[in-house]
């Protein structure tokens, strides 16, 4: 319930909703303030917009403070919301080629990733593992384009493709 000010006007009540697109960290804020004729958006202490909606593209990674100042010309109310911008995943991997077989050990060096999709680039078994480590036996010697897709909990992804050369295995103990 909004009580009237001493001059009989209703006191403004600032509030807003926020929708963050997790893969780009772009966010859209929409005011649903009451009794306000003027709206000012403040992001990390700086005035960044006026009006009902505010969109911020690619803010820096980390914690931020978004404020909305709702005014009716006489009185004002400020609504605050903390926003945490997450770092997107960055794909990377290392590998070790066996000298005794056509098997290669792959280890993800990805950052901010929780799920992994490997494509080993050979016809027989293109996607063989969903974990951060994988061992894959290639059917023949050659150079293969190995791709890793690293994903975070929101489904945001980054992809890297590296050439991996496999020589014919030679096991002297056989």
Record the SSE blueprint:
Blueprint: E1 16-21, E2 26-31, E3 38-43, E4 46-50, E5 53-56, E6 62-71, E7 76-85, E8 93-97, E9 103-108, E10 115-119, E11 133-137, E12 142-151, E13 157-166
Structure description:
The protein is an all-beta fold. It is built from no helices and 13 strands. It has a four-stranded antiparallel beta sheet with strand order 4-3-6-7, with no helix packed on it. It has a three-stranded antiparallel beta sheet with strand order 1-2-5, with no helix packed on it. A three-stranded antiparallel beta sheet has the order 8-9-11, with no helix packed on it. A hairpin with a 5-residue loop joins strand 8 (93-97) and strand 9 (103-108). The termini are far apart.
Could you estimate the helical fraction of the residues in percent?
A: under 10%
Principal-axis shape = rod-shaped
Number of helices: 0
Which runs of at least 5 residues are low in confidence (pLDDT < 50)? none
Strand arrangement within the widest β-sheet reads 4-3-6-7
Strand content: over 45%
Distance between the termini: 85 Å
Strand count, sense and closure of the main sheet?
4 strands, antiparallel
Beta strand count: 13
Radius of gyration: 27 Å
H/E element sequence: EEEEEEEEEEEEE
Supply the helix-strand structural class.
Answer: mainly beta
What is the residue-averaged pLDDT? 89
């Amino acid at each position: 319930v909004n009580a009237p000010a001493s001059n009989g006007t209703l006191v403004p009540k600032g509030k807003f909703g926020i929708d963050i697109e997790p893969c780009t960290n772009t966010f859209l804020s929409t005011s649903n303030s009451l009794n306000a004729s003027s709206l000012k958006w403040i992001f990390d202490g700086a005035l960044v917009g006026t009006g009902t909606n505010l969109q911020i593209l690619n803010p820096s990674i980390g914690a931020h403070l978004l404020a909305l100042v709702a005014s009716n010309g006489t009185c004002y109310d400020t609504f605050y919301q903390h926003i945490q911008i997450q770092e997107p995943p960055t794909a990377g991997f290392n590998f070790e080629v066996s000298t005794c077989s056509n098997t290669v050990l792959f280890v993800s060096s990805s950052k901010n990733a929780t799920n992994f999709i490997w494509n080993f680039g050979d016809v027989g078994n293109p996607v063989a593992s969903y974990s951060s480590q994988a061992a894959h036996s290639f059917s023949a010697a050659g150079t293969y384009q190995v791709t890793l897709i690293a994903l975070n909990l929101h489904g945001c992804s980054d992809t890297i493709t590296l050439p991996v050369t496999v020589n014919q295995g030679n096991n002297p103990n056989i």
